[in-house]
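Researcher: We're teaching a course module on how sequence relates to structure. For the next exercise, students receive a sequence and then see the predicted structure as C-alpha cells, so they can try to spot secondary structure elements on their own. Here is the exercise chain.
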Amino acid sequence: MAEALMLGLGVLVGGAAVGLWARTRLQQAAARVVHLEQSRQQELQHVSAARRQVETLQKELGEARHLLARRGLSLPQRAPETLAPDAEVTQPQPLAPDGFQATQIVPRER
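Model: And here is the predicted structure for the students to work with:
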C-alpha cells in the first residue's frame, strides 16, 4: 500500500514537472510567434512606404520628362559602358619540376 502511494506521488510530481516544462516551452513559442508577427507587420509597413516612395519618384520623373519635352529638350543618353582593354596580359609562370609553384611569404602589416 505504501509503495502504491509512493508510486502515485512520484507520478504526480513527475507529471507536474513535465507540465511546468511544457508550459514554459509553450510560452516561449508563443512569445516567438508574437515577435515574428510584429516583425512581419513592420516589414510590410517598410515595403508599402518604399512602394509609395517609388511611385512618387516615378511621378516626378515623368513630370520632369514632360517638362523637358515641352521645352524641346531631351534627356542625355547614357554613354555605352565599355571595358578598357587590359594594359598587359600576363601568362602564368611555368611550374617548377616538382609541380609546385614557388611560395612567396608576404609579411603582415601591423
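Model: If you want an answer key for the exercise: The radius of gyration is 36 Å. Residues 13 and 19 are 10 Å apart (CA to CA).
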